[in-house]
UniProtKB/TrEMBL annotation:
Domain Alcohol dehydrogenase-like C-terminal: 200-325
CDD domains, alphabetized: CAD1
Lineage: Eukaryota, Fungi, Dikarya, Basidiomycota, Agaricomycotina
GO molecular function annotations of the record: metal ion binding; oxidoreductase activity, acting on the CH-OH group of donors, NAD or NADP as acceptor
Swiss-Prot/TrEMBL keywords: Metal-binding, Oxidoreductase, Zinc
SUPFAM superfamilies: GroES-like (SSF50129), NAD(P)-binding Rossmann-fold domains (SSF51735)
Xref: InterPro entries: ADH-like_C (IPR013149), ADH-like_N (IPR013154), CAD-like (IPR047109), GroES-like_sf (IPR011032), NAD(P)-bd_dom_sf (IPR036291)
Natural source organism: Kwoniella newhampshirensis
Pfam families: ADH_N, ADH_zinc_N
Co-factor(s): Zn(2+)
Superkingdom: Eukaryota
Protein name per UniProt: Enoyl reductase (ER) domain-containing protein
Amino acid sequence: MSTATEPVFKGWAGLDAKACQGNLDFQSFEPKKWDEDDVDVKILYCGICGSDASALSGEWGPVDGVCPQVCGHEIVGEVVKVGSSPENGLKVGQMVGIGAQCDSCRECVDCKNHEEQCCPKMVITFNSPFARGNGKGSISRGGFAKYWRGPSRFAVPIPDELDPALAAPLMCGGITVFNPLEHYGAGTKAKNIGIVGVGGLGHMAILFASAMGAKVTAISRSEAKKEDAIKLGATGYIATGDDLQAAFAAHARSFDLIICTSNPPEFPIADYIPLLRPRGVFCFVGIVPKPLEFGLFPLVMSSAHIAGSNIGNPDGIARMLKFVVEKNIKPWIQRWDMDEINKAMPSFVNGDPRYRFVLVNTDNGGKM
Ligand SMILES: [Zn+2]
Ligand SMILES: [Zn+2]
């Protein structure tokens, strides 16, 4: 075992459904019980993702029984302790990032194929019980904290060339859109790509897809984000307004791939299917609560696909980070001192980020 600093596990905990309104409480928490493949990480940065707000506010179910919730799953920091069997070649001093998944069973066919994000026993980075080793039964604690402990397999090295603050939003939001763009061949097989929603995920999807060589069209409700979308690399922009069919008429059969980054309570997928090229793919990366309604006729006639995609595996995160360095991609972030989290979280919920908030632990060496 090798240690640089003895970690003190303290974080901003949600204690009830009002946490996002500025009621996170700074308190000590119990980290997972130590296993020899774990690392302790001194947290410098943590992005705020929609799932944090959903969990904290009870959208994912009642918060009784899961409190205190230490959320945050776009974590970047420095390894301060490694066990006797670290993965990813981790050493003390290495900068790493941790996303929405912090463990998997290691035994199923998907884990063996290193598709850990498909493991039926995946452990989410906050509020979830670990299921292996000494840590079995420990609850995962996320990045709204000073230190993080978890399996080294899910702590991915951050390249030296990359500003670690910019790496934070990539760990969940970034990989969530990078994974389907890579999988469906953005820039090669998928030359014309539509991105629905210009927000935290959507803005990174535009950056990635255009850097991959695709022609990108942003699809948003109003004209408000047009200028930003163009700056991010989109060459087309559709403001849908309320009449989608009218807005889409001129774009029928034009997209090889559409990635939907917005998750309203219900989604009018039937209006979007005619936008797809034959064999085109419409891919959801978030959850629309109401079941989809559509007729199969237009889908079958154009041999089109409706798909879903969930985050990405650690190897995919590593490939994304390499790509970000090669293409000099910079997510648009606004930094908040993590001590100000009770101001940042209500602002996040209000829809203020342009386009991702990153919390900074200045006392741990994070830079504003
Ligand atoms: Zn997330
Ligand atoms: Zn598994």
